[in-house]
Amino acid sequence: MKTVVIVGGNRGIGLEFAKEYLKKDNNVVATYRDKTKLVALKKLQKKYPGKLTLRKLDVTNMNDIAKLRRGVKKVDLLILSAGVKGYPIPGTRPAGNTRLELQKALAVNTTGPDDIIRGFYKKLLHSDRCVVYLSSGVSSTQDNAGGGYHPYRISKAAGNAMIWNWNIEFQKDWIQRNGKDHEKVPCAFAICPGWVKTDMGGADARQSVEESVTAMSKVIDTVGKTKDAAGLYMYDGTKLETYKSESVLQVVGL
């Protein structure tokens, strides 16, 4: 039985991921920041007794991350769903954004997830483990024609680079330890949920959280099997960006 850890699992997309993986008979660890917003998770605990564990986590707090690491003995799938826009007023252009807004976005959307992966690294360096970083279409440099969303766009673009770098590290360490048996190598990749009807996406969004998460879970299963993490995925399995994927066997000299 797999253990799925969902960071930011008490609302929106993270909550729907919790429902999705509980339905598939997995053990789920869902983190939350605000203990006053646990109604939905408490209902899931009653529906799936013994299957759902709740853990308090502020992704910017190293003590919280350390407690989470100590409390979770095994992780097969780590989903990094927590995120913030980083700007208070929709439509604000870059000249109107502040350094503090960018710092907050980077702390939650980039450095926090990075710290979590680092904390769980040894537990993730096992057969077929997977890390999924919830990104955004606005993170794509290739697809940016309209600008705006400055703190959010920058922090998610940095997150894409972060998660791809971790994927390379997983491959290098796995191959150094296990030789050419790279079919079960751990992987890490970024996926965009699309424009979803959540607190962040708004009521005018095109997709429900159920539609987005159902589609993304299929992509997660596929990437977990194929190990094709070399790109920024959309929820439907297409790639918004494709990364150069040099043979890791050559990089580590095998």
UniProtKB/TrEMBL annotation:
Signal sequence region: none
GO molecular function list: oxidoreductase activity, acting on the CH-OH group of donors, NAD or NADP as acceptor
Pfam families with a match to the protein in the record: adh_short
InterPro entries named among the record's database cross-references: NAD(P)-bd_dom_sf, SDR_enzymes, SDR_fam
SUPFAM superfamilies on file: NAD(P)-binding Rossmann-fold domains
Listed name of the protein: SDR family NAD(P)-dependent oxidoreductase
Organism encoding this protein: Aerophobetes bacterium
